[in-house]
Amino acid sequence: MLSLTTIAAAIGLLAATGATQDVSTYVNAAVPTGVPVAGNYTGDLRPQIHFSPPKFFMNDPNGMFVDANGTWHVYYQYNPTGSTAGNQHWGHATSQDLYHWINQPIALFPPTKNTPVFSGSAVIDVNNTSGFFPNQNNGVVAITTLAHYNEDGTAGTQTQAIAYSHDGGFTFQYYNGNPVINSASSQFRDPKVIWYEDHWVAVISYAQEFVIGFFTSPDLKSWTHASNFSTYGLLGTQYECPNIVQIPVRDFKTKEKTDTKFLLTISAQPGAPLGGSITEYFPGDFNGTHFTPLDGATRLTDFAKDNYAAQYFYGNTPDGNAINLGWASNWQYAQQVPTGNREGWRSSLTLPRVNYLTYAPRIGLIMVDEVYDLSPVMDQELNSTKMGNGDVVVDYSGVDSGALYVEVNVTNINTRQIQQYTTLNITFSNPNTGEALYTGFYFGGDTPFFINRGAVKGFDNIFFTDKFSVSPSTSTSPSSSPLPDRTANWTMKAVIDRSILEVFINQGVHSATVLFFPEGEPLSQCRVAAQDMPSGTEVSVAVWGLKSAWAKYQNEQGTVLGNVTMSATNSTSSGSAGQKRHMVYEGKFSY
Ligand code: FRU
Predict the structure, then answer these.
(1) What is the pTM of this model?
(2) Is 129 part of a structural domain of the chain?
(3) Which residues form the signal peptide (predicted)?
(4) How many angstroms is it from 144 CA to the middle of ligand 1?
């Protein structure tokens, strides 16, 4: 059994801030402080260009912000002592490009043994509205839910607390005036804060009442309830992890910005239409206190099951786009997936996704999802083919990462000549084991795009349903006439990464995140096959290998230690401290 110790401060914290620790934290002796948790990223199921925790269990992304130097910070719900949910801390990682992540020491510890730190967000208090940062403009304030549990294990209250960081988000200390928003409810959580013109705004979920509360504050310490957004969209059985973000509206073809709107997202679970967890979004207007959706529709971010609780980065993002990362799993089976027993870790984040809104005739504003610039992990082009009917087979067993980027475009399809079996199949398989992940377009019906993970055999669970499809709207196609359209342009961009597939259909109008777990050898062959296409149809295929984003951080034993130089190079106020540390670290283990 682990021996448990309560200590007055997390190690490394006092040294970092030089301040007095005014609120105690509880540190389990098995949890490292001041150094990251070490991990091994070599397992057959370990994603190579996605973030996953060094070991054990993670869920929601938290506290995401990009600092003035362009360093991206992600915190996450982390159990540092086990491969199922519980004992929530805020794990932490940083990146310069959203693909290469440096594991950092755990950032937030529970204040007491029975008070896990639930989901929340972080902001940069540039103007020192909080008063925590008299001499700096890069102070970070995290706002989180402290989930109090009673000694008998029953749920106590969920209250909102803040913690501040003088060193750009690496070490935090709890504010001694917590909670900043008190409550008598055991279901009040997941604050997400933004800056609106001259004040802070928080959206917080009254989870089981299906209410998103809007709160305002001048200083992040005192909060006033301003409005409620309640019982919209799919309810499931709880509303969780709300986000509000300013988001550009772009012309779908030129990508030019034509307007700015607000987007409210709500993650609902359990009880999603496909089972378990789902995220819905509402485009709308926001006046600083009240959110008004543009219409009464419910729209979903993904058409499969494995993208939940996504959060938007706070800070100056490139081109003002809204950039998110989601938790790539589903509460129906997140704690059972085989990565836990086979490799000692569970769950990853999605790829970084760039979001904007666009007008779709007949439908209104919809969210477009594009994968963030992949160039830092792009490797060699393995195939580039233009064809009509025919097939392309790419053996990628030689790609060390096991990760691929695949792009397929279908143009000039004469829809009046479509036949019963006019299909474009994109299949990932292993010829030795027969395991296969099927995807493709079926042009014969209402043009669905489908995914079938049922022939990948490493995980059997009643809720791990295997088939997903979407019928892409062509209302954003070159001519906005109703379906079918002669000149319809069908595209798929996909990233497959050992045990996770993400697809972006028709320039990101639809997207999906799909976990799959090969029982045997990794999938190693990609086949793109166009069948019964009308004459004149052009199919172009490009397949690229991707470089592992983790391999460069491994030592000879295959262990990724993360940022172990932190205490040596820590600085109290320099915004570039994080970057310096990365360079020192990368120098150690570069290839
Ligand atoms: C969503 C969620 C949040 C909560 C956190 C606990 O996945 O249930 O509502 O804060 O996970 O880990």
Answers:
(1) 0.91
(2) yes
(3) 1-19
(4) 11
User: CA 40, CA 43: separation in Å to the nearest integer?
Assistant: 7
Residue type, 254: T
Whose alpha carbon is nearest atom 8 of ligand 1? 240
Same domain, 289 and 396: no
Based on the residue annotation, tell me whether 60 is a catalytic residue of this protein: yes
Residue at 154 is within a domain:
yes
H or E segment and range at residue 145: strand 140-149
Q: What is the rounded CA–CA span in Å between residue 326 and residue 412?
A: 35
Q: Look at residues 546, 562, 583 and tell me which one is the last residue of a structural domain.
A: 546
Per-residue model confidence as pLDDT tens digits over 278-300 = 999 999 999 999 999 999 999 99
Question: 510-545, pLDDT tens digit by residue?
Answer: 999 999 999 999 999 999 999 999 999 999 999 999
On whether both 325 and 455 belong to a single domain, the answer is no
The answer to whether residues 69 and 156 belong to one domain is yes
How many structural domains comprise the chain?
A: 2
Residue nearest to atom 7 of ligand 1 (CA): 60
Which pLDDT score is estimated for 2?
A: 26
Same domain (yes/no): 117, 238: yes
pLDDT for the residue 472: 73
CA–CA dist 103, 98 (Å, integer): 13
Gap from CA of 467 to ligand 1 centroid (Å): 26
Q: Which atom of ligand 1 is nearest to the CA of 331?
A: 7
What separation in Å is there between the alpha carbon of 468 and the centre of ligand 1? Answer: 25
Structural domain boundaries enclosing 70 = 55-329+349-370
Residues 434 and 359 in one domain: no
390 CB contacts (<8 Å, ≥6 apart)? 529, 530, 539
Give the C-alpha distances (Å, rounded to integers) separating 340 from 55, 83, 328, 516.
9, 6, 15, 14
Is 293 within a domain? yes
Nearest ligand 1 atom to alpha carbon 240: 9
Q: Provide the CATH number for the domain around residue 299.
A: 2.115.10.20
Residues 144 and 171 in one domain: yes
Q: Residue 208 and residue 268: Cα distance in Å, rounded?
A: 10
Return all residues near 275 (Cβ < 8 A) that are at least 6 apart: 305, 330, 332, 463, 465
CA-derived radius of gyration, the chain: 24
19 is a domain residue? no
As a residue count, the chain comes to 591
**Domain containing residue 391: CATH number:** 2.60.120.560
